[in-house]
Amino acid sequence: MTKCAVCTASFGEGDYDGLSQHFVGQAEKSDPAHVMWLNKNITKKKCDVQTLSKNLKTHFDFRDEGLKGWMKRRFIERFYREKPHPFVLALQHPSKATLLGYVVEHQHFLRQWVRSCAYVVAKTDRVDVTLYELDNINTEFGGLGPDRPSHYELLLRMGESLGVPREQALRTPPLPDTAWAIRTWNEIGESSHWLETMAAMHPLELIANRNLKQDGATVGYFDPTILTGTEVTEATKNFLREGYEADVQHSEEAMDLIEKYSTGLGRAEDVQATFMKSIDAFDRYLMARLERGKEFESA
Amino acid sequence: MTKCAVCTASFGEGDYDGLSQHFVGQAEKSDPAHVMWLNKNITKKKCDVQTLSKNLKTHFDFRDEGLKGWMKRRFIERFYREKPHPFVLALQHPSKATLLGYVVEHQHFLRQWVRSCAYVVAKTDRVDVTLYELDNINTEFGGLGPDRPSHYELLLRMGESLGVPREQALRTPPLPDTAWAIRTWNEIGESSHWLETMAAMHPLELIANRNLKQDGATVGYFDPTILTGTEVTEATKNFLREGYEADVQHSEEAMDLIEKYSTGLGRAEDVQATFMKSIDAFDRYLMARLERGKEFESA
């Protein structure tokens, strides 16, 4: 099935003409979400249904690189090319305010993370997927005993090292954009196939994948020299290092599973649309981290 | 809300008159599932709406013992009183056939177990519930490293020690009664509140709770002398011992959580109906273990 990456409209498999007509129709009504999606992903120029259909088909074509390669390429394009995402730029040598914005919003993200992964476990019938998700949930949220605190715990410790007690972080509700993004991911978990939920979540771990430069990223998630210097607290290093190391394997392994099962189950196009929807949500969520950071600048 | 423990009918909170009318109506139509439920749980005698309403109210009354005490009492009544469940009787000193029936059907149960617990994780907003479920899933299915194999792994090893390779066990589809019970639990996970899913699954771990005799059980899950003698294989002892030890804490802790949140969230009656529905499914599933065991008797 071909699905719209903005709303819930869906079309027959490979029906890019239908998808194109849908986008042109929405653009004629000046629907801001559809227009923005076209501007960001396809073209800023007005074009006819036939041209757009061709462009959409090209956008979603993954024959040469495989589904995993396609997801990586689209992710890098969005967050790591000529204009890296503003949050990534801020994290190169992060201010205390940027890191605290990260802490306060990201605790909400990680709570949703465990819920989304749990939806995959609840719905999948593949044991390798179940075991992958359990390992991921344990690393991110459950922890693996006193010597291996979860990313969630390391995040809260980073906040404490910067002067924000965990109680304060935990009782701060998410900003509206974070809440919106979380709702998007939760709805995907609730109502979509488990492969789409996987595709919505795990490629996001690419954000901290230190190997992304090999695939064309112009910068890393942060300048790795901060892990050895004294410009950030030890707890900050511990948090950033964990992501830097764990997320390489996490995102690669998950995308292998997505690729392995998507084609066999005839779900590649659904997966692609949901992936695109999710990176839009992630983009907005990363902006919310910066917005929250501003509150700490004046403090 | 008061719900029927057999079908999807529901009534206002505490509306046992409504529930009673529903049961009488179903009994007049001779609906076998409703009649059997009344026979098993309330009375084998025909009675009027008013008397039945009073009896139903008494059946679900947990004011004196709390919700946890009520679930324990009902569970013991069903599986452990005058007439213990036939599978429990067979497990006192189990034959090889009984144990192999256990292996083949229970692998399917444990696959559903992890899915049901994952539904709780996906839906709950309480961190203590999330952490409880993660620990439970790891123990039952994920395992905790090479020194702490999961119950699922121990089950398959028991099968191997009795001459059934894991590939054979894994490729054997469930018997119809097991499949039906699994569907019941999966539907609860999919469509019910997370508290009901907890109440559907975790009290079932009472089956192996070695402390149940203190609460009125007439026998244990098996005769504990088999753990020290030579009548069963070492792998069988390892499997049975795990349940014997882990399930005490699992079931107690889960029922504490269910009790803690049910009343506050106004869900005690839903929880009770779903618990009753689940022990019916469990009863039938335990019979399926015996049925499968018979296939191995002639082998």
Q: What this model shows, in words?
A:
The structure is a homodimer of 299-residue chains. With 299 residues, chain A is mainly alpha-helical. Chain A has 13 helices and two strands. Chain A has a two-stranded antiparallel ribbon. The longest helix of chain A is centred in the last third of the chain and has 31 residues, at 234-264. Chains A and B meet through helix 6 and helix 7 of A and helix 6 and helix 7 of B.
The most extensive interface between chains reads: A-B, 20 and 20 residues
Termini of chain A, distance in Å? 50 Å
Structural class designation of chain A: mainly alpha
The proportion of strand residues of chain A reads under 5%
